[in-house]
Amino acid sequence: MESDSITVLESDSEPAVSLTASKVKSKSTHRKSGFTSSWQKNYPWLLYDNEERAMYCKLCMRYGNLPRNGSGKWVKVGCTSLRHDKLLKHTASAMHRDSEISSHEEARASLTGGIRGALEVPINEERKAAIGALKCLYFLAKNELPHTTKFTSLVYFSINMGCSFMKQLRRGGNASYRSKQVVAEFLFCLSDCIKQKVLLTMRNSPTISILIDESTDVSILKQLVMYGRCIVDGKLECYFF
Ligand SMILES: [Zn+2]
After folding, report:
1. Nearest CA to 87 among 58, 116, 117?
2. pTM of this prediction?
3. What is the pLDDT at residue 106?
4. How far is CA 91 from each of CA 68, 75, 78, 111, 145, rounded to the nearest angstrom?
5. Within the chain, which residues score under 70 in pLDDT?
């Protein structure tokens, strides 16, 4: 009976064989051949080439995972055994499992990127607030105002004047960025930045001289004063540091 005959198109290791109804014991052992479009719903990785009448795995193609027997099946050459059990076999294969792991890792990495993206906004706000605080401190230092005592009130004043991003400086008790220690650190960063620029300019000068003296600051505290003289573009410059 022709309708009951099953043709196995091509097996991975066995030659094509034709089974007759007499050789098939029951319907449960039937291996239907021929591509079924519903497979693509159940196996999203499945790619069917109509011309070749062959099946490929999009996932294994994407990650370049090849079968260990070197045949390149599912990736370089299609699987021409259009049978459901071939799909099951490929799903369970080591190459496909590797591809699935790679896919999950990629998805997880993109998720991390999403979280990082979400965190970027608060990080930027904090950065903006820190820059605002540095500007406040720079203003106080530049105008010779008592920076340690006036810094906090200047920050509050800036918030009252509409600089809402400065509220980010209130983050937590131990990270308020308003303590005397933080003010000193900010000041050190500002002075270090200026000092590095001065040192770089002096290093580029063909000749330098150092002037050292003693003076008192606004709080009548004795301070060592250092000036550096150097040549910039043929002109004599004097820097305080
Ligand atoms: Zn695969």
Report:
1. 58
2. 0.41
3. 79
4. 15, 14, 15, 25, 73
5. 1-32, 111-123, 170-179
**How far does the centroid of ligand 1 lie from the alpha carbon of residue 214, in Å?**
78
How remote is the CA of residue 113 from the centroid of ligand 1, in Å? 26
pLDDT attached to residue 148: 80
Name the residue among 131, 126, 139 with its Cα closest to residue 170: 126
Decide: 46 and 40 in contact? Cβ < 8 Å. Answer: yes
**Å from CA of 8 to ligand 1 middle:** 22
User: What pLDDT shows up at residue 207?
Assistant: 92
Given a contact cutoff of 8 angstroms between Cβ atoms, the answer to whether 19 and 2 are in contact is no
Q: How far apart are CA 148 and CA 94, in angstroms?
A: 66
For residue 7, the CA-to-ligand 1 centroid distance in Å is 25
Tell how far the Cα of 6 is from the centroid of ligand 1, in angstroms: 26
Tens of pLDDT along 59-68? 999 888 888 8
pLDDT of residue 29: 46
Tally of helices (H runs) and strands (E runs) in the chain = 6, 7
- Angle between the N-to-C axes of helices 147-160 and 180-203, in degrees from 0 to 180, rounded to the nearest 10: 100
